[in-house]
Each structure stands twice: as C-alpha cells, then as structure tokens.
Amino acid sequence: MKNRSRRRKGLIIFAPLLLIIVSLFGLTYGSVSVPFTEIWRVLTGNEPSIYQTILVDLRLPRILIGLLVGACLAVAGCILQGVMRNPLADPGIIGVTAGGGLMASMTMLVFPHLSYMLPISAFLGAFVTAMIIYFLAWDKGASPLKIILAGVAINALVGAVQNGLMVIFSDRIQSVIPWLAGGLNGRSWYHLEFMAPYAIVGLLLSLLAIKPANLLLLGDDSAKLLGQKVELQRFLLITLAAFLAGAAVSVAGLIGFVGLVVPHAIRLLIGEDYRYLLPLSAVYGAILVVLADTIARSWFDPIELPVGVLLAALGAPFFLYLLKKRGLM
To answer: Which of 19, 24, 75, 123 is deepest in the core (most CB within 10 A)?
Structure first.
C-alpha cells in the first residue's frame, strides 16, 4: 500500500510537468525546428516572429486537439474496462471506435453537407456498437474472450460495410482515407472549435462516473445492496464512453490502443480506485497522443506518419502481451 501511494503521488506530481514538456516538444519539433526563444516570443506576444504562422496556426491547435483526443480515448477505455470488469476493453479493440468511424465515414461520404453532425453521428455509431458488444459478451460477467471475439466480429462487419461505402463513393474517398489511418495532420482551429465542446462536456461528465465506477467494481450484488441501480448506471457509463470515443473519432479518425495502454498501465501502478485512475488516465492519455504525434511528424521526415499508425505499432505488442499474460493465447 505504501508503494502504491508513493507511485500515485509521483504520477500526480509529474503529470503537469510532463504535460508542459510534451507540449513544448510538440511546438519545437517538426519539419521546421523552432527555437524555444521564438516560442516564448510568440506565446507572450511581445514581439513579432517569423514563426508566428507555424506556431499559432499549425502546431498550437494541433497540440490542443491531440490533448483532447488523448484524454477522451483514455477516459473512454478506463470507463469501459471498469464497466465490463475487463482490462482488455478498449474503444478500438472491441469495435466501438470502428462503429463511430463507420457512421462518421457515412456522414462524410453520403451526406457531406451534414459535416457539422460528425460528432453526433460518430457518437451514435460508437454507442450502438458498444451496446451490441456488451450484450453479446455479458453472461453473468463480461468474459475477456467473449469481448475479444465479439469485437473481432463487429470490426469485420464494420470493415465490410466501410469497404462497400468506399467502393460505391469512390469519387469521394480521398478525403476519408487519411482520416481512416488516424491522424492530426492538417487539423486547425476550426477542428478544435468543432470538437472541443463535445470533448470538454464529456470529460467533465466523466468526473461524475467516478463513484458509480468504483461501486461497480464491487460486483453487481454488492452494488445493489448499497442501493445502486446497477443496470442504469452501466448503461449511462457505456453511453458516456461512446460519447467520448465519438468526439475523438470525429476529428482524429481511427486512433487505437490509447484507451487500452494508458488506463491499464496506470492501474498496474496505483490500483483500481477511480478517484485517481480516471483523471490520471485523462492526463497521461493526452500526453501519449501529443508525444506520439510529434514523433510521427518529426522523426520520419520528409514523410509525416499518421499518429494512428505509430500508436498501433506500439499498442499491438502490448495487447498481445496482455493476452499472453491472461492465458488467452
């Protein structure tokens, strides 16, 4: 317990420091490196700088979007893992993100004039997918194997429909392909204004999920004895996780494994208490996405690698490790 408390304090202390360091790293590095003195000059607004456009119009909104996307995906994964009592649950792995992506793709391809509805359509797709997987996997408990199998089936079905849409609307797919890879390339203040209200509302509502998530960890019977409406709470928590995943998908596309890696790693360090697990997952999820995005766009110059590709390359081995550790392989 003392070691866990010490690790918890360490994560809390380092969180704001790492957030600042990673954000400055994102502002500094890219196809054009910007000296720190120029960053300070632009942010304080004291003197004009030749890097004004690069920092203010390109990198700053991209970093802010990355922070929100990472926080939303990590919190969504954290909530789903608690609701399903399964550390392998993640919006991407179990198909929730794919469901949101399908609806968002449908909006962009079939109804491009309704682009302002992207967050809502992504949420509806993510929510319907989450509910289907939940009911398929639930049998006096959410079996890890059943969740994985249901997620594979749903992902295959969604992928088939997605491919069909791309064939039918082949003249419009160029705008969708980069989005399907998952990335923040070209994201601007417009995109931030587009998704920020949804993301901020979802993250604030997630604070209300801390108490019911902790009670659900005790098991359904114990939670009912404490006067909790278990099924209603589970439904609301899944809805919230789908809303967060939909908000992230609507702007960043199909970025996976953030909701798996971050909450699971923090849980190993500090335990299951959602009073600390959920907010720390949000912060470190934001840090991971911004760090990965900066690496993806600066280390592979002149190519800008989509951050979704890099995170998948890092997250897939971690997922295989978890499967092996739990005896599912």
So the answer is: 75
